[in-house]
Write a structure and sequence with these properties.
Chain lengths: ~270, ~130
Amino acid sequence: MALIPHNTSQLEALRQDPALHESTYVHAVYDSIADHFSQTRYKPWPIIAAFLASLPPGSMGLDSGCGNGKYLPLDQDGKIMLVGMDRSLGLLAHAQRAGGKGREVLRGDALGVFWRHDAFDFAISIATIHHLSTPERRRQAVEALLRSVSVSHGRVLIYVWATEQDELSKRTIPEDPERKGKKAQDVFVPWQKAIGKGKEKGKEGGDQKQEVHQRYYHMFEKGELRGLVMQAAKSLELQVLEDAEDVKVPSVQIVQEGWERSNWYVELLLRAPA
Amino acid sequence: MVKLITHNLLCCHARGCNYPENFPLVFRDVTQLEVREADFNAEFLQKMMPRLEWTALVNTAKQLGDTSLPEEMPQGDAVDEGILKKLHHVLMEIHIEEGAMHCPKCDHKYPILQGIPNMLLAEHEIGR
């Protein structure tokens, strides 16, 4: 399936009113496709499952952009707890009963910090920040995650879609109309849902009679996620650490980063002087 | 469903509101409150307890008609199964389904509909 790059007038519209662009091409779309989308999102990704399993009992976490809540049931038999937050009421209706149990969910957006000081022990942001349409808003989203967790031990895991897609991905990324030889980063990803008789099935691709919704994505290039973390850290006056050295000032340590199945990810740890 | 464990984390994010004056949010116009049994996990409660804002929790529970928690957070040996069971009930089993939460400073209203609080603010209302 080919992704569609933004043309000049779409890029202009995005830059003029990024919040409106996201409202039209992200929030409204997820509300329309919520039920179909939810049927296709149930398998947790391995690094995220391992991260959740590594948390000490009693940990409270935020799933920022929880979608249909597929990570909320991974609460390690009740030893940890996740609170789900999303913009889409349609998806929250699914998240609220993810895994067949009542879950704690709220409506909010990824730029908001409506948590008290020292609220969470960890936060995850899976496939969310790539729906924000400017570098400033993406940086603010990283800042919001860092501000939501404990300054002394908070852990943060972020996943975003990459311009580098593997052979398992059915997505092909076109060239950027404004940058020769580079892949487009601001794109529409079509969501096609079969309409009419028979079993309805939502997926990316397909060839039946379809209703198509265009979702906005910002595809991340190599190094871009780290760059965002550096900027967010600077804005919050946090020193960036590459390893577990002693800290003298409030710091954020990059615990691991990498590429997995067409996504870039980074795990962060907030640290404060003893 | 808003449980008190979640309420204990929330604060107002309107422009001009800062911690601690924007905390805790105050429940108002609660038209539907449900008590639902939840799985008891002593280890979770014991470990997360020190991370609670205890006074806010006790006062909020009182406003909702539950006076089972002591004014001071129990420490050491005082944290027995009896206290954990009470804490479990207050944190995990009381659900606010319909109503609102208001900021104690600016009175901004965050409505709760079908168990989902709406924490969104208009762009011009947000303080960053």
